[in-house]
Design a protein that fits this description.
By secondary structure, this protein is α+β, with helices and mostly antiparallel strands. It is built from 4 helices and 12 strands. The strands form 3 sheets. It has a 5-stranded antiparallel beta sheet, with no helix packed on it. The chain has a 4-stranded antiparallel beta sheet with strand order 1-2-4-3, covered by helices on one side.
Length: about 350
């Protein structure tokens, strides 16, 4: 065999080997490697997204933790280690010594919930609406942990003698019933330490509300005429002289001018020319204007705006005592804390 033929065979063989190897690498090995690399890249992207999600969750959890810690450090409620039922009864009685006609409470039970203990009392009685509001405000906003629940209120209209004049007067009272929970013996760290800054008084809502939410807007019955005032709806108008209106009440002549008090209201104006008297009345929250005509004796009524009713003026306890077990009670000497026994 000539050298040319031999060289040609060798070159053809080498070309076939190179072509086969290239085909194997291109069609078999490289696609598998490319698939493996693509899967690895996808796994890296998923891991990176998971890390970013975890970082966002960590930042949110840190913000929530800071907020929770700030609220925890700002707490001012105190759960005494020990609290007797007598202490709670004495405290509630002290809060109800002003503005209450009756105040009865009974111990409903004591419960140990694992993390804390609680006394439960059932309370019933009668008080001025505003006095009851002040009592609830003081109970729920002192440093001790108390809760008022299941509150029920019904209106009661009673007639009692005025202590100054002896004349009977009508009083609108609130008959109530509710339950009071007094918490104590909380777990370690549950109570606010005494070293925390005291909450300023301006941070609390006012003890006297601008509008008493418990007081009725319209009375079911009108108050009695304890001051024996002229009743323009019942007493007759006798004459109008100048700016003076003369009424006859129980056989007695009564002279009234604009601005003078009458039963349930005041004289608004006296018109001597037309002999017409105008009176504004407040009938337990319903306002009316009445015109009295001397010539005919007729009385004409018309509404004069929205209903308004004078608010209850019941007394409110201005200096409530500190709750037993609180740092304030300890500093004032009204409560002696029970020492915590040392661990063995």
């Amino acid at each position: 065999m000539s050298s040319e033929v031999l060289n040609t065979l060798i070159l053809a063989t080498l070309m076939a080997v190179v072509t086969g190897a290239g085909y194997y690498v291109t069609k078999k090995q490289q696609p598998a490697e490319l698939t493996r690399l693509e899967q690895q890249e996808e796994a890296i992207r998923l891991a990176q997204a998971e890390v970013e999600t975890l970082l966002v969750g960590e930042a949110q959890a840190s913000a929530e933790a800071r907020e929770a810690l700030a609220r925890w450090n700002a707490r001012y409620k105190v759960l005494p280690n020990e609290l007797t039922s007598a202490d709670v009864v004495q405290y509630l009685n002290a809060l109800s010594r002003v503005g209450f006609k009756s105040f009865d409470l009974t111990l409903a039970g004591i419960a140990d919930n694992g993390t804390h203990s609680v006394y439960t009392y059932n309370v019933t009685g009668e008080a001025y609406f505003e006095s009851l509001y002040g009592f609830i405000w003081n109970v729920e906003n002192n440093r001790a942990m108390y809760r008022v629940r299941d509150l029920q209120i019904t209106k009661s209209i009673v007639t009692r003698p005025n202590p100054e004049t002896g004349v009977d007067r009508m009083e609108v009272m609130a008959r109530f019933s509710f339950a009071v929970d007094a918490y104590f013996a909380g777990q370690q760290g549950m109570s606010a330490p005494d070293s925390l800054m005291s909450v300023p008084a301006e941070a609390f809502p006012p003890r006297r509300p601008f509008v008493n939410m418990f007081f009725p807007f319209v009375l079911e019955s009108l108050p009695p005429n304890t001051d024996d005032l002229v009743d323009v709806e019942e007493d007759s108008l006798s004459s109008v002289v100048g700016g003076t209106a003369v009424f006859v009440r129980n056989g007695e002549m009564r002279s009234l001018r604009a601005g003078d008090r009458i039963y349930l209201g005041r004289i608004s104006s006296v018109d001597p020319t037309r002999a017409i008297i105008v009176a504004d009345l407040n009938k337990g929250g319903i306002r009316e204007r009445i015109e009295l005509h001397l010539a005919t004796g007729e009385r004409f009524r018309q509404a004069i705006g929205s209903s308004t009713l004078e608010r209850s003026s019941g007394p409110v306890l201005t200096t409530p005592p500190p709750a037993p077990g609180t740092p304030d009670a300890i500093r004032e000497g009204t409560y002696t804390p029970v020492p915590i026994p040392a661990d063995d």
